[in-house]
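Good morning C.,

I know you're traveling, so I'll keep this short. The sequence:
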Amino acid sequence: MEKFKYLAIEGIIGVGKTELAEMLVEKLKAKLILELVEENPFLPDFYKDMDAYAFQTQIFFLLSRHKQQMELKQMELFSTNLVSDYMFEKDKIFANLTLRDTELSLYNKIFTILKKDILKPSLIVYLQIDPERALTRIKKRGRPFERNITIDYLQELNEAYNQFFFHYEDFPLLIINVNNEEDFRTLLREIEKDDKGMRVFLPRSSKLFR
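The tokens, ready to paste straight into the viewer:
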């Protein structure tokens, strides 16, 4: 798996990014990099009042993710295989969705500066899911700060993610629809294919995420 030195898993809230990342880490003998969502002190208030807390929430995430990405670069120096349950660029998806014009302008200036030194993924795996199913998964895992997530927000987020990735050309991209999930071995074979550009994989069975 040398060609996949750094795998990044992406998708909307509740799609199963961390679950897949953990399975890949075990199979590929890689280092697991998890997004530190629960460390954001503004997040509970954000889901109660997005307009009031969007900027604070997003800037905290941006700086936190940048710090973590800088640590990834040090790991990469020692030829460590990496699997992450997020990609740095995802931050802009949320920012474009939640920030006002003046806030977004300032955010974009900061993002442009911080993005320059970010480690580039070897492959991005984008997991697609129906927002209704994602909301069911969110409620099942029962994180307190996610109690106020609405189906409307997930639908907006889903549209923003699709828009972003359907026009994405920076790195190799594998799109996987997980509404009807495949078993892990089949999915791993798809990830291991040495193809460039964008690929779409539509599983048929229901064995991967529960």
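Safe travels,
E.
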